[in-house]
């Protein structure tokens, strides 16, 4: 009987095109029991060996048989329904669903869960992420507060993926979240307050505006 290779065991060979290929056992399908074979490529034997070593180290910490099932879209939807929605307020759940379905999945939903393409996502949302173009004073981008909230939500979602051994490391930790931009409050000059209150009084709104 052939020896069953341990997760991460691999070998290197030179291909006909001149590149070096490292193949390794990343895991086993839980039902069929067949090996899950992955490969890395390098221009030189040393480069390939380094990539193979890093890939084998990652394979020891990931449940590859499950990780390969997930894209960003499938994982975020699963995380939202199972972990987030049952444990947060309705208003927060609605905001999370908006950030998942409208801001994230249309842009990076099809990529694998391990892909680190989040910084580009934040930049795109800040520049061109607004759904309702009539709001936002003509600015097509989302506010820094909204994008930072998205970053925090994704951090939570990917942290759960790390705990379930779907990814080795949380990709949001490599991102720089936008700093919240404070908008200076505009107030009426003291000399205009009298006219403001008189106009409110003529419309029968003085008590409300006076209190405000």
What does this structure look like?
This protein is mainly alpha-helical and 212 residues long. The chain is built from eight helices and three strands, in the order βββαααααααα. A three-stranded antiparallel beta sheet has the order 1-2-3, covered by helices on one side. β1 and β2 (20-28) form a beta hairpin. α3 packs antiparallel against α4 and α3 (72-84) packs across α6 (144-163).
The gist of it:
By secondary structure, this protein is mainly alpha-helical.
Count of DSSP-assigned helices: 8
Distance between the termini: 83 Å
Sequence of strands across the biggest β-sheet: 1-2-3
Quick one: how many beta strands?
A: 3
- Strand % is 5-15%
Features of the shown structure:
212 residues; mainly alpha; 3-stranded antiparallel beta sheet; 3 strands; 48% helix; elongated
Write the layout of secondary structure elements.
Blueprint: E1 10-14, E2 20-28, E3 35-42, H1 45-59, H2 64-67, H3 72-84, H4 90-108, H5 118-128, H6 144-163, H7 190-202, H8 206-211
Antiparallel strand pairs: 1-2, 2-3
Helix pairs in contact: 3-4, 3-6
